[in-house]
Structure formats: C-alpha cells, structure tokens
Design a protein that fits this description.
190 residues, alpha/beta, 5-stranded parallel β-sheet, 7 helices, 5 strands
C-alpha cells in the first residue's frame, strides 16, 4: 500500500513532535510512504516535469498533487488548521482516495460527511490503532465486490435523476444511500 502523508508547514514549530509521531506510526505498517515529512515527495515528479518546473512553490504543489494521485490513500495531520491541507484533502477525495485527517484537538469527521473522508482525534496512546483501523477501511475500498440486481424502469429512472442531482453515477448513488443508512444505524445505537 502506498500512503501520502502531509501536515502544515506553518504548524511545524508547535506540532513537529506530533507530525513525527504520526509518520513513525504509519511506517510501522510497512507501507510505502510518500511525504514532505520524509523528504521524498518530489520523487513522484517525472524528470520531464521536474526539469520544466523552476518555481519552487509550483514544484512543491505539483509534487503533492502527484503524490496524492500515486498513493492509495492520504493521511493528514491537521492539528494546525491550514487552508492548503483542506485543499489537499479535497484533491484526494476527488480522486476517490480515502483520506484520514488526524488532530489532537477534534474529530473532523463530525463536521465533514463524505464516503472517502475519515477523521479522528488522537493521543500518543491511540494513534497506532487509529491508523490501523483506517488501513482496514482502505483495504475495504480496494476489495469491493460486484453483484447484479434487477430494477424496474421507474427505479432506474429515479437512480439516474438522483445521480445527476448529486453528480454521481447510479452505483455511487446506491453506495451513498447504503453508507447514509449505516451511519444512521450507528448513531441510533450510540
């Protein structure tokens, strides 16, 4: 599994020990890690692209974009809230890559509801289990199962119209309904 990991540059002074803790825990799972925190994130640029990018900020951005594209999932340490990190989470979600946003302050999944978005508040004692649980979910996404079903014409028409409304295909819309139902059941049980 390839993981892209990032954190706020502006938060380094305050949160570097947290960034290092998360990076260390990710590496315990023997994954391929691409990260500005590892210093290897620009290696994803092909030599042609790298040679033409003279602006260091654009090279940095393109490296992050390509790292997210290359990875199976993205983990973000978001204790220091940063607009750029939000954008990077959106880039991953748009590519249908699972995203885990970790914070020492709050669980962002209570604010952001999306099938590919996961959040967790962590401590040094909980971080390893949190990352392990996320990797289980990532494997679920990569091992999806196919099944066939028959629908009435009116049901297909409904799926098509709702899919257009939410900018999804019919399969995505059905998965959305199932996930909403599962969340509702979890909330009812709590």
């Amino acid at each position: 599994m390839t993981v892209f990991y990032t954190a706020s540059y502006y938060g380094k002074k305050t949160y570097q020990k947290h960034y290092d803790l998360v990076r260390t825990m990710i590496k315990r799972f023997k994954v391929e890690l691409i990260s500005p925190e590892e210093g290897n994130y620009q290696s994803v640029l092909d030599s042609g692209t790298a040679a033409t990018m003279t602006d260091p900020f654009m090279r940095h951005y393109e490296s992050i974009r390509q790292g997210i594209h290359t990875a199976d999932c993205t983990i973000i340490e978001g204790s220091y809230q940063d607009f750029q990190l939000g954008h990077e989470a959106t880039l991953a979600i748009m590519e249908k890559k699972p995203v885990l946003v970790l914070s020492t302050h709050e669980d962002f999944s209570k604010k952001i509801n999306h099938d590919y978005f996961f959040g967790a508040r962590y401590t040094p004692q909980t971080i390893e289990g949190t990352i392990q649980n996320f990797f289980v979910k990532v494997r679920e996404f990569s091992q999806s199962r196919r099944f066939n079903m028959f629908l009435y014409t009116s049901q297909v028409e409904h799926l098509e119209s709702m899919g257009k409304k939410y900018d999804m295909n019919m399969s995505e819309y059905i998965r959305r309904l199932i996930n909403l139902d599962r969340r509702s059941a979890r909330m009812s049980a709590a």
